[in-house]
Each structure stands twice: as C-alpha cells, then as structure tokens.
Amino acid sequence: MSRKFFVIFILLCSFLGASIFTVPHLCQAATAEVADGQDEFSEYDEEVGYLNDPLEVVNRAIFTFNDRLHIWVIEPTARGYRKVTPSMFRTGLLNFFNNLLEPTRIINCLLQGRFKAAEETFLRFALNTTAGVGGLMDPATFDGMKSHERQFASTLSDYGIASGPYLVLPFFGPNDFRGTLGLVGDTLTSPLFFVLNNDPLAAVAVQSSNAINRTSFKLGEYEKMLSSAIDPYIAVRDAYEQHQQKVLGR
C-alpha cells in the first residue's frame, strides 16, 4: 500500500506540472516551436484582487525551493536537451503527453454537463491516437477540433466547492485547496497512473522526461516574467489568481 501511495505522490507532483513550473499554465499540444519573442505571461499583467494566503510563511519557503530548482536544475537541463534534440522529436513528445490528458478532460466535461465538449474531446482523442500514431502527431488541431481544458478543479468549482487557501506545492507550484483535491482526481484518471502505478522509478523517469521536454519550449519565460517583479512570490501568486479567473470563467 505504501508503494502505491508513493507512486500517487510522484505522479501528483508532476502531473500537469511540467518543468517544476511556478505558474500552472497548461501547455497546448504543438506542432511548431513557440514563436520567438512571444510573452506567455502577457495575460497576467493586470491587477488582481485579494487572494487568501494564511500560509504565506510556509508558501514562501516552498516557493524559494521550487524557484531554485527551476533556475539551477530544470532550465539548464532543458536548455542542453533542446540543443541536442530535434524539434520534431520534442514536438511529438509534447503531443503524446498532451493526448494522454484527453481521457481526464472527457470525464470532467461529462461531470460538468458539457456533453458537446465531451464528444469533441473524445473525437479529438480518437483521431490523434489512431491517425496521429498514438498521439505523436496532432491531426485533430489541423482539422479544427478544439481542445477543452477541463480539470477536476473546475469540476469541483462547478459543484460549489470553494477554492480555499492559496498553497504552493513542492515541485508543482502554486495551487489552492480545491486545486489540490482536483490534482488527485486528475492523477487517478490519467492513463499514466494505471501504467506506472507499480513502478515508482519508471514514474519518476517518465514524468521527469515530460517536464524537461515541456520546459524546452518555454526557455527564459519564467525569468522574463519575474525580471521586473519587486516581489517574485507576489508576482507568481497574482499570476496564478488571474489564471484561475480565466480558466473558471469568473
């Protein structure tokens, strides 16, 4: 039992986290490099309201750990990986892991009563898994099939569960109480969980590879976001709150 809980923890820390990144901005499946000079965080430049943060002292300590790990370990590794790895391979791997998230999206669309979105997501998953060679390619996007980013956190919000206090999770980054509960649901419905639940080392290897690959598409963006911030912790916290407002449609 303890072994299985360890695997859940490993997958929980890395599922969707991608690069030990401080802002939970989900990567879309891509078929080309992120455009040069594109600021992924431009949507977070406006003011936000008050965010409940009673655990700020602890959150700041974990934020510092995540920040140092990203800057000193993850990004340098991703930079070297990008230099020696063909773009086509990196894009295929990005598409593959994004495709594995589709079953979770389907479940959440159904739980939220978004049946049309669930149908579209299922068709997208079926097309990319078959014609896309297991998800390595993304023909669904070329066919105009929309990706519906639905997670258990948004499902819990639809059912009236409050966000609760702001939390910074080790490795994963900013979150809140509802989002943390949602991560459990997202993890347990991921195909990766069923494949890797008996092999902790494989879980670490697979998710680390995913994190490094995803980071290789966003090199320098984290540093750019915080370069002019007086307090990086506050900047990331505000970015998280704005991201939640956009995702949940508040």
Class by helix and strand content? mainly alpha
Low-pLDDT runs:
14-48
Average residue-wise pLDDT: 81
List the secondary-structure elements in sequence, H or E: HHHHHHHEEHHHHH
The main pleated sheet reads as: 2 strands, antiparallel
Any idea what the shape is? globular
Strand order of the largest sheet: 1-2
Our count of helices gives: 12
Tell how many strands the DSSP assignment holds. 2
Q: Structurally, how many domains make up the residues?
A: 1
- Oligomer description: single chain
**Straight-line N-to-C gap:** 40 Å
Features of this protein?
single chain; mainly alpha; two-stranded antiparallel sheet; 12 helices; 2 strands
